[in-house]
Design a protein that fits this description.
This protein is α/β, with parallel strands linked by helices. It has 15 helices and eleven strands. Helix 13 links the parallel strand 8 and strand 9. The longest helix is centred in the middle third of the chain and has 23 residues.
C-alpha cells in the first residue's frame, strides 16, 4: 500500500518481471518496528484500534514514496496462526508476544482437529480489525491491497516446537505430513477469510523462514507440495514469499512453488540470484536490515540502495527493499536514504557484472539463525 496509487502499479509491474520507469521501493513493516517507531506500548498497539490505525496511516504521509507490504497488516507478532491451534501466548509491553507449545507430541498434532478460522484463536479479531481499517480507508478513497499468513513450517514449529518438528521429518514423516496438511488447509482458509473482508484485494504474502533450515530433499518432500498448494489457490493475485534464512541451495526449487515475488536474505549476492532465478521470480531486496539499515548512517544506506539498483534493476523484476523486514530500531532516516537513492538513480554505463557488490565486513556479518530456546519472542521477520 502506498500514498501514490501509481507506486502500487509499479510494484505489480515489477512483480510480473516488468520494468517500471523507476524501480519501486517496498518495505515489510509490522509491530516489532512500528510500536517502537511510534513510541507506544506494544500492548497498546495491539489493543487500541485507533492507535494502530493512526500509526499505519501516518506512514503513508511520512514516506509517500514507499510501497508498504502488506500495508495495515493485522498481526500479533507470530501469534495469530498458532493461536488457532491453542498455543500458549505470553504478552509483553515492549515486544511482540512469545509463544509456548502446549505439547510437543507429534502424534497429538497429527490427530488434532482442524481449527475453525472464523472462531478460533486470534483469527476473528484479525477480520474485525481489517473491516474497521478498510471502512476508514475507503472513506479516503483508499483500500488495503494485500493480506498475509505465516507458512506451514513456521506455524507448525511454533505450535509443536521446532526441535520436535525437525526430528519428526526424519523419525515420523507420515505424522508430519498429516499435521502439515492440516496447517496448510488452515492457512488457505485464513487467507480467504482475510481477503473476504476487503473490497479490492490484489495480493497475498506468505512468510516462512523455517523452510530455509531444511535440505533440498526434505524441501521437496515436506515443503514444496504445501507451498504449491497455497500459492495455486491464489493464482491471479500478486503472491509474495518471505524467507530471509540463507538457503541458496533451495533457490532453484523455489521457481516451482508458484509465487511471484521473493523477499530473501541479504546474505547472498543479488546479481547472482537474479541470474539464477530472476527469469522466473521477481526479487525483493537486498539491503541488510540490521547491519546497514539500523546501524549505519544514511549515506551508507544510500550507497547500498544505489548498488542494488546498479547491479540488478536493469531488465526489470527488481523491487528495492531490505533483505527481510524492517528491524526494530531502524531510524526513519534510513528509509529517507533509500527513497532518495531511488529518486536519484539512473542506469549506469557499466554492465552489472562489472559493478562490484558492497559487502559487510567479517566483524559485521551475523551468525546463522538458531532456534534452540524453548520459548522464543514471536517477532516478525528480522
Amino acid at each position: 500500500m502506498s500514498n501514490d496509487p501509481t507506486l502500487w502499479q509499479d510494484f505489480k509491474l515489477a512483480a510480473r518481471l516488468g520494468e517500471p520507469a523507476r524501480p519501486p521501493l517496498a518495505l515489510i513493516v509490522d509491530s516489532p518496528w512500528l510500536a517502537g517507531y511510534a513510541g507506544v506500548n506494544t500492548k497498546d498497539f495491539y489493543l487500541f484500534p485507533d492507535i494502530w490505525f493512526q500509526i499505519h496511516r501516518r506512514l503513508l504521509d511520512r514516506f509517500p514514496g514507499v510501497v508498504w507490504i502488506p500495508g495495515f497488516w493485522v498481526e500479533y507478532g507470530m501469534a495469530v496462526e498458532p493461536s488457532a491451534f491453542g498455543v500458549r501466548i505470553h504478552w509483553h509491553d515492549d515486544r511482540p508476544p512469545s509463544l509456548e507449545p502446549v505439547t510437543t507430541s507429534l502424534e497429538h498434532w497429527a490427530d488434532a482437529p482442524l481449527p475453525n478460522v472464523h472462531e478460533d484463536g486470534l483469527m476473528p479479531l484479525v477480520y474485525r480489525l481489517y473491516g474497521y481499517a478498510e471502512e476508514r480507508l475507503q472513506a479516503e478513497g483508499r483500500g488495503i491491497k494485500m493480506v498475509c499468513a505465516r507458512g506451514p513450517m513456521v506455524t507448525a514449529g511454533w505450535v509443536m516446537g521446532i526441535s520436535a518438528l525437525m526430528m519428526g521429518l526424519v523419525q515420523h514423516p507420515a505424522l508430519v505430513h498429516r499435521f502439515l496438511d492440516k496447517v496448510t488447509t488452515t492457512i488457505i482458509r485464513f487467507l480467504h477469510a482475510q481477503l473476504d473482508t476487503l473490497r479490492e484485494p490484489e495480493g497475498i504474502m506468505l512468510l516462512d523462514d523455517i523452510v530455509g533450515m531444511v535440505s533440498l530433499e526434505h524441501y521437496e518432500e515436506f515443503v514444496e507440495p504445501y507451498l504449491q498448494r497455497i500459492f495455486a489457490e491464489f493464482e491471479g493475485l500478486v503472491r509474495v514469499y518471505h524467507n530471509d534464512t540463507p538457503c541458496p541451495h533451495l533457490f532453484p526449487a523455489f521457481t516451482r512453488a508458484g509465487f511471484d515475488v521473493f523477499n530473501f536474505t541479504y546474505d547472498v549476492d543479488l546479481l547472482e540470484t537474479k541470474k539464477q532465478i530472476g527469469h522466473r521470480i521477481a526479487l525483493m531486496g537486498n539491503i541488510p536490515p540490521l547491519h546497514v539499515a539500523v546501524r549505519e548512517r544514511p549515506e551508507t544506506v544510500y550507497r547500498w540502495a544505489t548498488n542494488c539498483l546498479d547491479r540488478a534493476a536493469r531488465g526489470g523484476g527488481l523491487i528495492l527493499s531490505l533483505g527481510g523486514g524492517i528491524s526494530p530500531g531502524m531510524p526513519a532516516e534510513s528509509i529517507d536514504a533509500m527513497l532518495q537513492a531511488v529518486r536519484d538513480w539512473t542506469p549506469p554505463d557499466l554492465p552489472p557484472e562489472q559493478i562490484a557488490p558492497l559487502r559487510l565486513s567479517k566483524e559485521e556479518k551475523p551468525a546463522r539463525k538458531t532456534r534452540r530456546r524453548p520459548r522464543r519472542s514471536a517477532s516478525s521477520p528480522p
